[in-house]
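question for whoever is on the cluster today: can someone run the full assembly for these? two chains, 204 residues total. i dont have access anymore since they changed the login thing
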Amino acid sequence: MTDAKSRIDETVKANDVVLYMKGTKEMPQCGFSSRVAGVLNYMGVAFKDVNVLADDEIRQGIKDYSDWPTIPQLYVKGEFVGGCDIITEMTLSGELDTLFEENGVAYDKDAADKIRAANA
Amino acid sequence: MPITEEMRARLQAAFAPTELEISDDSERHRGHAGYREGGESHFSVHIRAAAFAGMGRVARHRAVHAALGDIVPRIHALALDIGT
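^ ran it for u. tokens below:
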């Protein structure tokens, strides 16, 4: 296992919810990263953010790790869930709620419902 | 050939879609990260094909990424709306 791969492996297994993104959750630097971080923040989900712009090895390594060419990338309990389009779709369909429930991740259901109502 | 046309040809060949719309959204991202003069940086694809039946969301995206091949690393952003 390469150094980048073992570092990623450690991070996604040590944290229930991890978002690899451009920028930080307080200061996203890309619209797609911003959207996913915004959903998680709004839903009150505790998550670890990893800024790929601050680490070239991770920026490439995360694409190899998941065999996924783009950022952001969301991981729950060590499993790759998807990027911006998938997380948006899963938020609106309620699948993200189910995923969090199945994995014992705390989130604000009312906030999730508000996102859905605003996008109905 | 414009990248949208290259994408269209590869997606047609791979999935025989019933619906396929590709747009170059680069101008909407002028001034943002990844924008470059002349566009061809940000794209969105709407595709519907029977070939995606039985595949999960991640698998569908991976199939589209695979069909687009070396186009993916050449562009900055690709928004996908995939269905059957």
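summary bc i know u wont read the tokens: The mean pLDDT of chain A is 96. Chain A touches chain B at residues 22, 29-32, 67-70, 80-86, 89-90 (CB under 8 Å).
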